[in-house]
Amino acid sequence: MDKKLYEEMNKQVQEEFYAAYLYLSMSNWLEDQNFGGFAQWMKAQAHEETEHAMKIRDFLIDVGQKVNLMPIAKVPTEFKSVLDCFEGALAHEKHVTSRINMLYGLAKDKKEYAAEVFLQWFVKEQVEEEKQTADAVAALKMVGESMGALLQLNKTYGKRD
Question: What is the pTM (predicted TM-score) of this model?
Fold first, then answer.
């Protein structure tokens, strides 16, 4: 595997685990604020990001590469509001999308066909990740300060497995 692609794929494992920690931190804060539904949504998101990290780890191993786990940076633990959490999640998803696109472009440029095919799943996944998080931000902006509407959204978002 191309050296730069290898290094960036290892970094992406770290990025995915960071995302899991970030969403778990948001889940913790939301629980503390008595928004168990939104907390459940973020907890499910954290689990999904861990699966993404493991998927990349497994791919690296499958193609005969060593996985180098790197330290995960400290995540924020305090947020201003439910909307602040989801806006932060959306900003992070956009960051991850830019990294996945960079990885895909690198694989394509270096003619790393197995990596290119593997990363196609992540390209598609990021469209879904950004859309669902953007939809949540839009819904939260619509309800504004209405506690009744916010509690209804909390109930709805708590249904995510």
Answer: 0.94
